[in-house]
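haha ok so turns out i had the wrong file open the whole time. this is the CORRECT one, sorry everyone. sequence first:
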Amino acid sequence: MSDYIFSSKNQPKDYLRDYLKTIYKSNAPSAYEFHGNWGSLAVTKQHYNGFLPYENKQHLMLVIGGPILYFRDNDFLVEADSSVATKSIYDRWIVDGLMQWDEDLSGPFTIILVNKITGVITTVTDLMSFIPVYTCQKDHSLYLGTHVDVLASAAGVLDELDQVSLADFVLNGFITYPYTFYKHVRQSKPSCVTTFHNSTTKAVDCYWLPTETNSYNNLNQAAEALRVGIAGYVDRISEKMNDNDIAQFISAGEDSRALSGLLADRKGRDAYIFLDQMNREGRIAKKIAAIYDSTFNVGFRCKTHYLDIMPAASCLVGAGHQYFHAHSLGFDKKYCLSKYHAVFGGYFSDSLLKAAYAHKLKSAERFQFFPDFPISGESRTKIIKNPVIKDEILYKINNRRRSHYNESFSERPLSAHEWFVLRPASMRVAIPNLYSTRRLFKSYEPFMCKEAVKISAAVPTSWKLNRRLFNRAMKPYLKASKWTMHADGRLPYFSWWVNMPIQFGIWLHRNIAKRLGIIKGNQGPWGDWKLVFRDQAWKTTVDHLTSHRSNLEIFEDDVYIKSLLLSNELSGIQKINLAQTLYRAQSIFYTKENHDVLKRD
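then structure:
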């Protein structure tokens, strides 16, 4: 299923289902509702086959997401929709008592189990909480759900905004775990089985922790295990699928190139990329598609695309998550992506396998050809200052960050700086990419499989820096495109020290060409926000967002929100975050009115 909302308090028919519909601006999926002495539960139908609700005399169970089962085949993915997978998980867990959550399921998922007799509720989160679960315990009632706005609406706490979280999101692009956009809503722990009884938390059992325990003798051994794990995940998904049932996202990068290699035996599959115009990124991606025998498809965005999708994307991913990572929204309908049995992406490889967020010298960020050098210490607890945000709010943000860092440090003292933004996955600014794709079509991310997560947690950061682990593991899949450049001017098949002089030469050439006006325009895959900020559409959006009274209380008294959005007092990303926050805060008034009407009815 795609999303659920649970209430220990019995709700009227369609009450919860109507809130689930608000996730989608149009074409909301059908939903199921269940009621009993234990409360009410509603769930929307998802794209992955085999995961319909399972119910017997004692239990009701839902599986959100499309986890791959490792204790049996996954033929149900291509068969008529059913509850086969849900029941298989139930039997292994409840009937046989054999479930090993960290081994038997792979990829994003969460589960809710209702004991209809005792009223005990059990939730299970995946290794990284790729699919977050939110809780609200209010007035002796328990509310659980997978979409933060839906949960807040159903629990009647929608207008009780957490001003500290709002400021945190504006400044950083995410909300520090376990807090959310709403005062009374929290996020559940990753890799945990949590039991609730009488609307209170009874037990929290963590079945896996990302401890720094390396069982691999050397880098080659870890790379081999990673390669086998990722390939096995892809094979389990695609084993019974026809070639034209599979699609992938493609780019000029190395992650999608490795993915293309993994899928190379699936001839004629469709490969998609979305761009502002046909540029360097598109030209390289087209070459890669040809090399790996896929059909290249490019969708072009209008200049204001990311402004245009703000309402729909904000609703889709939920408040406190950057909406503009919903890159597929709109294109999913144009290209009928839901028709495929599997649409593969290459997300999270940088995060887990290349130590992109380790503490290292900043030089590599500016000069791409420069190798990564780790440095000691951390900067996650560095005091955040901003002259436009109230001091008392900044103080609380810094305390929350310090608390989360301390928790990361307790699990991973050597790499707490890196894992501060990795676990739970809601701390990654780009995770709304998954939040959107899984709700739009059958989305699979091989670099989120259990082997990628566990090996990333086990091996030292030094093995991941400079793409060493990734390159060693994915090299066989990069061979076919050995001499095709990456968008950043290197050859992904080769190691960092081979690429360093090559990349330096291309970097120098491109910088000179830009200064001379030979290279113009946006050459990357994402939208050019600098152009958007100069467009009249941005000014119109700002006028609209600031024309109504705001319930944001995060700024100093002499700060004008409109000037923040039109000036350079905030960074570009912070201005987008603020615009999204204003949009959500204003829409709450309308939603609150609907909530009151539903309660009266």
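The CA atoms of residues 173 and 368 lie 24 Å apart.
again sry for the mixup
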